[in-house]
Amino acid sequence: xxxxxxxxxxxxxxxxxxxxxxxxxxxxxxxxxRAFGGPVPDDCAVGVPLLRFATEGVMAMPLLEAMLEDxxxxxxxxxxxxxxxxxxxxxxxxxxxxxxxxxxxxxxWSCKLHAYDRPVSxxxxxxxLVWC
Length: 132
Hints:
The protein is of the alpha+beta class. It has four helices and four strands, in the order H-H-E-E-H-E-E-H. The chain has helices spanning 2-12, 26-35, 63-68, 109-117; strands at residues 50-53, 61-62, 90-98, 101-108. The chain has a four-stranded mixed beta sheet.
C-alpha cells in the first residue's frame, strides 16, 4: 500500500518533480523535514498522499483534493519557510515532492534569489524549478 501511495503522489504532480533539486539547499531541506511534523486531519487514512505545508501549524490535506482545487492551495504565510524572516514579502511557493507527500515551501524574494537563482557551488537550477 505504501508503494502505491508514493506512486500516486508522483503521478498527481508530474510538473513539480524537478523541484526536488531544491532539496540540495540545506535550509530548504530542513523546511521540508519540518513539514512532516505538522498537523494531519484525523480523517486521513494511513497511506493517503498528502499536501503538507512547511509553514508551522498549517493543516495538511489530501493531495488529490488539493489537485482538484482551483487555484492550487498556497497557505498565505507571513514568514519565509527557509529563513524565517517576516520583514520581506513572501510571495513565491515551491511544491516539492517528498515521498508520498508534496510539501509547499513559502519563500521570500531574497531566499528565492540567493538560494535558487544564483547558487554558488552547483549548476543553475532556476530554469528547472516550477513556482506556484
